[in-house]
Amino acid sequence: MAKLEAIVAAHPINRKPYHCIRFARLSSHRKPLYTVTGDERELGALSALKAAFELHGGHCFHCRKWLAPQKLSQAANRDHIHPKSDGGEDYLHNLVITCGTCNRSKAAKNIVDFQVERGKDYLKALDAHIARCIEAMTD
Ligand SMILES: [Zn+2]
Fold this sequence. Notes:
The protein is of the alpha+beta class. The protein has one domain (2-138). Helices cover 39% and strands 22% of the residues. α1 packs across α5. The two termini are 16 Å apart.
């Protein structure tokens, strides 16, 4: 279990701005809705990550550069880990904050093709996160 915790800790879900995002409920269309610390609205994943970043800032997922709270722009944006062009969906676990430089150089590449080690760590963390969610549901 300690190993699983360490793997999950590598996932940005435990850091700004993600830790400001809380699951609220499933919508009538069974899409997850979230609330963000400092924002009263219930939001879908894309909007929740946008609101959380604009209020709280975050690190670029790829190069770890700190990005202060700001409006999304070419200099700071959201990126799909699994590219949208390859079927990646707007789930919170598939969305990360990236600086403009990394976003442009990653483009539509898959995370493992862009940064092999970071990509593998991410996928391990995601598997561990999902395993933990399944455990929690079957308890
Ligand atoms: Zn970057």
